[in-house]
């Protein structure tokens, strides 16, 4: 490739120019305060990638989200042959693309659909729907899987992010809708499975979390609780006080009031 400057036949070295023309251009840009190097310190990008990995976002997923090659991502933290330490400078565009990938606020936020995660929250959601009167057949049909596949999912220790997401979406759709299958409801009672509204949506995926059991005979009369919560709120009672009165979690009261409004 030849230098882009008129009447120059020397080979292009940097930014399409020969060494002499590039140096002239660089000095002029510096004098005008306009020079911006193509390369920047690799430190910020390296630290950002380390934080992404600590949040569970792997190299493949970072590649998908940023468009930066996997080798380039790996070399940020790996000593290359002939070097005592990783590269200290990288292309500005590479750094910008890596830094544009947000650190996920929630552990699962940026994980690839095929990533393997703990299945605790998924199992709790499925069991809660059964305890609320939804048969495994109806749940399987809504999820688009066979009953045997659903049974397998309910007994796994791990599942994919994709499975977790579709189950969470169905749970959000049905948590306020009691099912009609008495056999499913009785099974839930026998096995001690918590009902949907006995789980806090913010902690249901946490293996150490426990459901807030209703005090009224072991089963929540959702519609009656909604009406009572609305009446107490109309009297000026705060959600935490209503939760104590009804024997449910405060987040459950907030859901009752959201539906009532």
Structure notes:
This protein is mostly helical and 261 residues long. The chain has three domains: 1-36, no CATH class; 39-99; 117-260, no CATH class. The chain is built from 13 helices and four strands. InterPro entries: WH-like_DNA-bd_sf (IPR036388).
- Please state the structural category: mainly alpha
Order of helices and strands: HEHHHEHEHHHEHHHHH
- The shape is elongated
**Alpha-carbon distance between the two ends:** 69 Å
Approximate helicity band = 40-55%
The total strand number stands at 4
Give the strand order of the largest sheet, numbering strands 1, 2, ... along the chain: 1-2
Tell me the strand percentage band.
under 5%
Taking all residues together, what is the mean pLDDT? 83
| Rg over C-alpha atoms, rounded to the nearest angstrom | 29 Å
Number of helices: 13
Q: Biggest sheet, open or closed, and with what strands and sense?
A: 2 strands, antiparallel
> How many domains in all?
3
Poorly predicted sequence stretches spanning 5 or more consecutive residues? none
Outline the fold blueprint.
Blueprint: H1 19-32, E1 39-41, H2 43-54, H3 59-66, H4 70-75, E2 89-91, H5 92-99, E3 116-118, H6 120-131, H7 136-143, H8 147-153, E4 158-160, H9 161-174, H10 182-191, H11 222-234, H12 239-246, H13 250-260
Antiparallel strand pairs: 1-2, 3-4
InterPro entries: WH-like_DNA-bd_sf
Brief overview:
InterPro entries: WH-like_DNA-bd_sf. With 261 residues, the protein is mainly α.
